[in-house]
Structures are given as structure tokens and as C-alpha cells.
Amino acid sequence: MITDNPTIKRSDIPLTKEDFVSDQMVKWCPGCGAHAILAAVTNVFPKIGYRKENFMFVSGIGCSSRFPYYVNTYGFHGIHGRALPIASGIKLSNPHLSVWVVTGDGDSMAIGGNHFIHTIRRNIDLNVMLFNNQIYGLTKGQYSPTTPIGTKTKTSPYGTIEHPFNPGELVFGAQGTFFARTIDNNIKLMTDIMFEAARHDGTSVIEILQNCVIFNEGAHKQVSSRETRDDFQILLKNGEPMIFGKNRDKGIRLNGIKLEVVKLGENGITENDILVHDQYEKDPGLHLMLTKMKPPLFPLAMGVIRSAVFPTYNDLIVEQNEYAKATSPIKNMDDLLNSGDTWEL
Question: Considering the entire predicted model, what is its pTM?
């Protein structure tokens, strides 16, 4: 079950999109997918309903990391790869904040990779927006940890020979409790997913497939273009069968221990044979299988793939501190100074 966070104060007055629009000039390239992501954020924050002063953005380095300047909330622009430890400290010291981390595929999974997996493992109550354009944009086109093998870039003129990360697999390998995937040309889906992430208690990771118009134009074209997207992406909705396709005539079925694409009406296949999505399932096995699907054999899974409820680091550390205070013989500094062996001089 997803619940609102009772420790974060709700606004006494209705807020609008304009309340979150910054007075700063937005300096992303024209056509960059980040503009749509920014629009989704300013759309969803009034719907989340927290007081404006209870929202906090933290970023590292990269094109995405300009985000705190472009939203009229509190913000912290950190250094390369270090957004997550900064955000963790902020959230643990002030649980009354809704903390959002903006990061890219390079910032989070290269120099920040260690912080990425351990933040997820701890299940700290943070919302991570991961802009995945499969390239280093700010530093002018080097390959990143998510660049597909064989891609020619500034630093791989003969094609990269490194196997890329699948962010969802990395999240599940780190015991992640919430993972969703969306794309920058679908503002409604981004808004819906951000709302779900805000209500999730624990670390929520949203992978946003983003188009870099300068250094990696069309990286996600197969799943973003109007001509092909219906057949190469599937929108998962909790409690609904996994059906997709331009004619809504294809589905995902579990065949033994593997997923397969089937066509409704062929070989006696009906909607009853199609998997029904359960994003709240605690066992991540099927969620991982869905995350690993990719074209051309499978559609790319979109929407909230996993939203499982587990204890958070925030709750457990409060519980542990309360227990320590209640059971420790040392209650103040005098107790500490007079504990153990003491001498009078």
C-alpha cells in the first residue's frame, strides 16, 4: 500500500504550477528532453500538496544538475556523483522535507555509482530522477555507463566495447523497493509516476529516457516515435493485464520461467493467459524480468514496475535511537564523564 508521508506538512492553501516556476533563465538546449521533465515536476508538485518550503532538490554535475535553479523550491547543487550522500544527510537530519535528487546516467552510475547502490540498499526516503540520455552531454559527447555497446562517441570513435548498465537491474540488485521508467515526450506519464514516487516510503528511482538533441539525437527513437512506440513499449498498470501493440492485440505471458510475447486470438490465446501486473509484490523476480525486456524481441516496460513496502532507513534509525536512549545508563554529559574508571587528582 502507498501512503502519504505524515511527517511532511501539507500546504494550507492550494498551490499552482506557477508557484514552482523559477525566475531563472533555463539554459538547456532547445529541444532537450529536460524541458519536458521540468514541466512534469511543476505540474505534479501542486498535486502532491506539500508546502512549498518542504520541497528540496539536490543535484550533482551534468546538464540535469542545473535543475535546482529552475524550480522555485529549496535546492543544493552538489559536486560530481555526490548528490545522493548530500540528499541522504538532508533527509535524515530533517525528515519533514520531501527530498528529490536529480542526476544523470553518468553522474549516478559512474563516479556516483557507489553512492547510488548504497542509497538504494539503505532504502532512505528519497525520490531519485535519473535522466538517461546514454551520453555525457555537459562534457560534449563521451560515452556513459548506459551507452549501448558499439556506439561511436567522442571517446569511443570505433564503438564502445563496454557492456552498458540497465538502471533497473542495478536498482533491483541493490534491493530497490521502487523503480519506474518513463520517457521525456510523455509528460502525463512522467507526472503520474512522480506522484506515485512521492507517496512511496523509501527510495524511489525513476528512470527517464531523455533525448540529447546535440550529442545523442534519437537514442530512444524506437520507443518514442509515433510510428513504432505502440509496438515497442508497454505501459504497465497495477492490476491490469500486460497488453500492448498498435491494435492492443499483443501481450506478455509467462512460459515456464521465461516471459514471451503472444498474440491474442492466435493458438487459443485469450486475455486470461496474459500476465496481470502487481507492482506491490515483494519478491522482485518478475519485476526484474520485466525490467530486462527490450526491443526488438520485447517491448520496453514503462510505468511503475515495482513499489514494494519495506522498512526504511529513516524509520529504523529513529527506532534504534529511541531504544538506545531508553536503555543506555548514560543520559547526559555528566554520566559520560563519570562512567568507567575515574580518578581524583
Answer: 0.94
The residue among 344 and 29 whose pLDDT is bigger is 29
C-alpha cell at 260: 514471451
Q: Cα(146)–Cα(234) distance, rounded to whole angstroms? A: 21
What length does the chain have?
A: 345
Q: Which residue has the cell 562517441?
A: 153
Question: Under a CB-based contact definition with an 8 Å cutoff, are residues 288 and 259 in contact?
Answer: no
User: Would strands 300-307 and 178-183 be described as parallel, antiparallel, or unpaired?
Assistant: antiparallel
Model pLDDT, residue 61: 94
Q: Which residues neighbour 202 within 8 Å (Cβ) at sequence distance 6 or greater?
A: 123, 124, 125, 177, 178, 309, 310, 312
Q: What is the pLDDT of residue 241?
A: 98
75 forms beta bridges with: 57
Domains defined along the chain, listed by start = 17-219+309-320 (3.40.50.970)
Q: Where are the alpha helices (DSSP H) in the chain?
A: 34-48, 83-93, 105-109, 113-122, 167-173, 187-199, 221-224, 229-232, 285-292, 313-327, 333-337
